[in-house]
Design a protein that fits this description.
- The structure holds two protein chains of two kinds.
- By secondary structure, chain A is mainly α.
- Chain A contains nine helices and no strands.
- Chain A is about 75% helix and about 0% strand.
- In chain A, helix 6 crosses helix 8.
- The termini of chain A are far apart.
- Chain B is mostly helical.
- The chains are: A mainly alpha, B mainly alpha.
- At the A-B interface, helix 1, helix 2, helix 5, helix 6 and helix 8 of A face helix 1 and helix 2 of B.
Chain lengths: ~170, ~140
Amino acid sequence: MGDEQAFGLLVRRYTKSAYAVAYSVTGRHEDAEDATQESFLVALRRLDECRNPERFGGWLLTIVRNRSRNLVRRESLRAADPIPPAASGRGPTPERETERSQLRDRLEAALSTLPSVQREIVLLHDLEGWKHREIAERLDIPSGTVRSHLHFARKALRIALGEEMEHIRL
Amino acid sequence: MNMHRHSSTHSSPEDRDPELERLLGALDPAATDPGFWVGLQRRITEAGRFELARRRRLADITVAGTVTSWARAVVPSAVVAAAAAAVILLVVPAPPEGEVVVSVEELLSAGLEWEPSATPIDEDPAGGVTFATAEIF
């Protein structure tokens, strides 16, 4: 397998989980997308540092987390300088009045109340379908800790999204 | 909503939260843009091509550099060895094949049996042989 094919395989395998982690840190779709792309390129440049191929996933997610935090820091510094709304291109538009957009806003608000590790775990488990053991291996924490974080994250989200949860049951 | 799962085998049923999973599915960019993941993966692999090409060039330089450094050490050593061999061959004559020149004293002290195959070079008028050459096969 050529190196381009191998890289493509890694990208397909880890893009969604990288995005989930990036989103858990940044809380914004566009920032999560940027951080994900940036992280893969950083991982490629620093590939020699990943000595154990089996730990590539966890190593990549560490890079994602760090790049996402850097991006949030850069964005917060940029936010200190007022930018004309027309130039930003990323703020909400008046057209974002659909039900899904409102739901996303509620979800983002609910997730922002969680500690970052709970946010990351609930997105990896409930959005990406990872198992406790997989998350524990990637994040290098005990499986029991993953279960505990997941339990409290779900509890907090259910409270924050009470109305939406009722809507689903009906 | 069609959501891609990381693994085809899920945790035990009691571990899943289908209601919350449905809600969180709204965060999946593909829910509003079905081509999102394919597009993102394509952009990442495109951007990765430049880095991969750079790594290949670096690897080629490293191989060429290694071979060159070997040549730098090997060639002068070979030249020196060849020069030394030439000096040895030219300065030290090789003995004729099959012929060993020894003195009479050496033959006598070595206890070798021999027959003089050459006539004495010189004869002492007193009856002794002062010089002789011999060939030992």
